[in-house]
Design goal:
The chain is globular. It has a single domain (3-17, 53-365), classed as TIM Barrel (Alpha-Beta Barrel), CATH 3.20.20.140. The chain has 15 helices and ten strands. It is an alpha/beta fold. Helix 2 crosses helix 5 (121-141) and helix 6 (157-169) runs parallel beside helix 7 (193-202). It has a five-stranded parallel beta sheet with strand order 6-7-8-9-10. Strands 3-4-5 form a three-stranded parallel beta sheet. The protein has helices at residues 3-7, 27-36, 71-76, 94-103, 121-141, 157-169, 193-202, 226-229, 231-245, 248-251, 271-279, 293-297, 309-319, 338-344, 350-365; strands spanning 53-54, 57-58, 62-67, 107-111, 146-148, 175-178, 205-208, 256-259, 301-303, 324-325. The N and C termini lie far apart (47 Å). Bound molecules: zinc ion. Zinc ion (ZN) is lined by residues 11, 65, 67, 209, 260, 329, 332.
């Protein structure tokens, strides 16, 4: 069985060689981290850094959808670096910064796709510990270029709560990156309520990233990489629909959720959700929602990885431009023109573009001016 598909990185993320040792934000660890990347930060001066300007003002651009993996943690899961997808993450220091500079991305919020949801408690605990320590060290090395989402072992909600609290309060991480289910268990399941409650209390962002829909594996085979093309946006669509229809978002109205890939298919065909139970009232399970299903879309956030100006226009029309943040999927080469995608799409005001480019993300991630 393809562990990568089951485990969570259906669209694929490359192996990395972020070989930092365990630490929090200590100076010694920081020095070591700098020594172990292939090129020190100063060397980046040689790369031309694109500075994004809107209406004569420099805008700090922030990408909420960028990946890495930690080889040491992968090993604990029995996964191989070479099976992971994505170019260049092994040169995460110099190469990543140079690509960000070229693309006009000032900051990335890095996340690790959860491939540990089927792991036992001890392994999952160890994997998360290693990853969060290394992400924290990485961010401390370049505090003006990177923040990170914590990994959490959501299959053990009590443990995930501890991990989130530690990551946010002690390690400076800015929220948590999760899949679109926990190995097939929907986020709307009551067992996760305590985790959403804690995330809501902490005021941190939850970044939802799909892991394909392994239940449909047989129908997604063949040409077209449908496990990703369809499987990933469908996974996100299912997650968000359950959070809406099961009343989870009513229960946690302050929970901040940001979905990758523009929220999958949901915003593209949102009005259907408002009409399903009218057509078939016998399918109503008795969950009394406080508002129309589509109205919840405007309570959440989405990245702008939707490729065309028309798709961006429609996404903004359904969810509001104030709910959109840059998502590049770096280093997966889906989109190298994320900034121009926003700058060139017709119909947005300067204020809207500034918010999408980085203003909204800065607020969500607690990034100071
Ligand atoms: Zn991604």
């Amino acid at each position: 069985m393809d562990k990568k598909r089951i485990g969570g990185d259906a669209h694929g993320c490359a192996p990395g060689e972020i070989e930092f040792t365990a630490c929090e934000l200590a100076d010694a660890a920081r020095a070591q981290a700098q020594a172990q990347v292939q090129q020190p930060p100063q060397a980046q001066a040689a790369t031309r850094r694109r500075e994004v300007v809107v209406a004569g003002k420099r805008v700090r651009t922030i990408d909420v959808h960028a990946h890495c993996v930690i080889p040491e943690a992968l090993k604990l899961l029995g996964l191989k670096l070479e099976d992971q997808r994505g170019p260049g993450i092994g040169e995460v220091g110099a190469r990543r910064l140079a690509e960000m500079d070229e693309q006009g991305i000032d900051m990335e919020a890095i996340s690790i796709n959860p491939q540990w949801y089927r792991a036992g408690r001890d392994v999952a605990e160890q994997v998360v510990k290693i990853q969060n320590e290394k992400l924290a060290a990485f961010c401390a090395t370049w505090p003006d270029r990177f923040v990170a989402f914590a990994s959490v072992a959501l299959q053990f909600p009590d443990l995930a709560i501890q991990q989130l609290e530690h990551a946010v309060k002690k390690q400076g991480l800015r929220g948590a990156a999760v899949g679109a289910s926990v190995a097939g268990v929907e986020f709307s399941d009551p067992k996760f309520h305590p985790f959403w409650a804690r995330a809501q209390d902490l005021g941190v962002l939850i970044f939802i990233h799909p892991q394909s829909t392994p239940d449909l594996k047989s129908r997604l085979k063949g040409n077209g990489w449908l496990e990703n093309t369809i499987g990933n946006p469908l996974d996100t669509t299912l997650a968000l629909s359950h959070l809406i229809f099961e009343g989870t978002l009513d229960r946690f109205p302050g929970l901040k959720i940001c979905s990758a890939h523009g929220g999958g298919f949901l915003p593209s065909y949102a009005p259907r959700s408002d009409n399903c139970l009218r057509v078939a009232p016998e399918m109503d399970a008795g969950v009394k929602l406080k508002k129309k299903p589509t109205e919840y879309l405007r309570d959440m956030y989405y990245d702008t990885l939707v490729f065309t100006s028309e798709a961006l226009r429609h996404l903004a029309a359904e969810v509001g431009s104030d709910r959109l943040v840059i998502g590049t999927d770096h280093p997966i080469p889906w989109q190298s023109q994320s900034v121009d995608h926003i700058l060139n799409a017709p119909g947005f005001t300067d204020e809207e573009r500034i918010a999408m480019l980085g203003g909204t993300a800065a607020k969500l991630l607690g990034i100071k001016p």
